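Q: Trace token order:
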Amino acid sequence: MDYLIMGGQLMLSLSILIVLHELGHFLPARLFGTRVEKFYLFFDPWFELYKKKVGDTEYGIGWLPLGGYVKISGMIDESFDTEQMSQEPQPWEFRSKPAWQRLIIMLGGVTVNFILGFLLYGFVLWAYGQEYLPNDNLAYGIQVDSLGAEMGLRDGDHILSVGDAPYEQFNDRLVVREIIINNADQITVERDGKEVQVPIDPKYVTLLSSYEYKSKVLFYPRMPFKVKSAMENSPADKAGIQAGDQIIGLDGQPTPWFIDFAKAIQGKNGETVDLKVLRKSTDTLQVSLTTTETGMIGVERVSAGELFGTKRKEYSLAQALPAGVKKGWTFLGDQVKAFGQMFRGRIKASESLGGFGTIGSMFGNEWLWERFWTMTAVLSLILAFMNLLPIPALDGGHVMFLLYEIITGRKPSDKFLERATIVGFVLVIGLVLYANGLDIIRSFFG
């Protein structure tokens, strides 16, 4: 079921983006009197799932969900219709139009994707606001995981800044971003009442951007073990554990923090244990219970947001739209910087690439509309950015040749464009197969 939910979200998101992208080509083409022969969601080699002709255009749905296309008369594209190109140009064909009109037609798809990404970011902020845990609210600092400890962070540290960026919202992904994208070389923390600089080895740019470590948590909020509720008929419920209790010891061993309790109870499956419980901040109780066969006591603990208090920034529509544009530009800037890191060899392309499986997993196994529309905004901007790369067969390749024509006044020959498009098409298909192959390898071999 999880895979169906992730796959369903991915298919819906891609369908929306593909249709709107191709509409970005279709509308200016029709505006300039250019005939559009086909408008397809997904590719249709050999056969299609659905088609209907309206006027000069055949609308349809293909069976191969690797993208979509509009077939514009007199244009060298992935259809490789050499027969049409060998005939005399007709007034309604793409090749008969002025270069500036052809440029607008080719930029239409990415323009729609850029605008859509910015708008979706803005509408998400308008509809849902932005909830976050203020870093200043963390009364006990951080609890580091193994990778965070290896980098030099310590339990109880209060992070003040990462590189030159102030650390205001608690989220370890913000630390990862600053290290990978902005080359942050130190983390400033407050430790035992003193300000301490923790240097970051450059190797962590490569390590944190690798597939194996991309979701590796560096640290958590350091928290005591406070009980939110005891599950019905659980060992804790039967032993009288109540909401608001704080577990501070196990079998005579102090457990002031939740992580201490989690370590102390490891291996005590189906065993009787003695808990030291603080109730109403004044009463200390001794409680005995028998853990489950999996070593659980059956409580839901108070979350970091509930313990420390989150903040939610609300946006009016007038505030959300420019904030969405800013958020989108920041994301695009990160993509450009990530490419720069790849060229410098600090990020490995093979570790950063992923196919449909990787993208689908980013939607999550629960259908949450806020996350769905945020991911759709992300994919829209990625689609626009990737399509602008100067690779023949992509929009950016067509734009590159059109700009050459406008600047020099010389149009590349149809034969050259045809061959360049074939090369570009092979490169793009190869990249898609490579990215999805990486997903398959990772799923079988970790």
Remarks:
- The two ends are 21 Å apart (CA to CA).
- The chain is about 45% helix and 20% strand.
